Amino acid sequence: MTELTDRYLFAATRSLPASQRDDLSRDLAERVADTIEARIDSGASTPETAERDALVELGHPASLAATYSDRPLMLIGPRYFLIWKRLLLFLESFVPATVAAATALGLVIAGGGWEVIGSSIGIGITVAVHLAFWTTLVFALIERYGTGTDVDETLGWTPEQLPQLPELRRPHRRMDLIATLVWLAIAAGFLVWQQFGIVWADGERTSVPLLAPDLWSFWLPYLLALIALEAAFAVWIYRSDWNWANALVNVALNAAFAIPVVWLFVEGRLFSPEFLAVVEPLLDSDAEWVLSVLFVAGVVAFSAWDAVDGIVKAARGGGRGTLDFPGNRSPRRTEL
Question: Which positions are tagged coiled coil (predicted)?
Fold first, then answer.
């Protein structure tokens, strides 16, 4: 059995409950082997092409898995289920978010306040519901009145489209890296954007910076450099995985963030005087004290959690997360 067959078995069984995967994988492996042998014996394929031809003959792995697991792919009928699912997931992945963002931008330009957030979310949800309804309706009509086109032909499926086998060590580390880099980019963008004002007063956005402008003399460039180091460290973790040395570097990076931020806040140098002048009249002394405690506790808790998370990952020999649920961390490497 080659990697191509392994990828086919993985694609066919990955959406099934864990209790069914082994049995189905064995059955499919036997069926693939029998099909390969039959094609060679009949002269329908050469030994070099028999495996690929056998997988094409068996068809799309998701369709084949559905016939084994008593889970029919039904919209109105099974013929167009996979095409409908692929299109719907594609549209829902970006259309609602794009419409919501465009709506939010238009409302902000028109002078909207915090209500922009609620309005944008509501419009995004509405668009998502309409997309699901109208897409499903179109496919229901196609199912009822369309021709009997073969699903594999419609999907244009070939064995080359099979997913790569997951890495035994870190099955989701690329997703971790992308998520980390996106959030770091957002954080860096926020540090720059806040300087131009993010405060709404009397329903209008004002040019009041959140952080004190004199921090640009050192501390804000320091935080931007720290974000760059965090991005480089994330790439390093992606390439090398967690170990004790990386865990100690992670602790140092978190300390390098938390200590200056808490110190600047306690010294009253973190937020700009203009921002405090807008906010303080809206708060009494008790509210200010509670918010101050929550801010310091939040910074310390976030940094401590991330540092401890890295230590736990290193202690477990690497992996995606610290919680024990399927897919959250990979098994330790087994030495032969």
Answer: none
Q: Which helix (H) or strand (E) holds 205?
A: strand 204-206
DSSP secondary structure, 176-211, as one string: HHHHHHHHHHHHHHHHHHGGG--EEETTEEE---SB
The residue assigned the tokens 């050469």 is 46
User: Which of the given ranges, 99-108, 299-308, 309-318, has the highest pLDDT on average?
Assistant: 299-308
What CA–CA distance (Å, rounded) separates 241 from 228?
Answer: 19
Q: Are 113 and 81 in contact (CB under 8 A)?
A: no
> Per residue in 75-87, pLDDT tens?
556 667 777 887 8
Whole-angstrom Cα distance, residue 34 to residue 57?
A: 12
Domain range summary for the chain, segments of one domain joined by +: 3-69, 81-147, 173-315
Nearest to 326 by CA among 121, 172, 215: 172
- The helix (run of H) or strand (run of E) holding residue 200 is strand 199-201
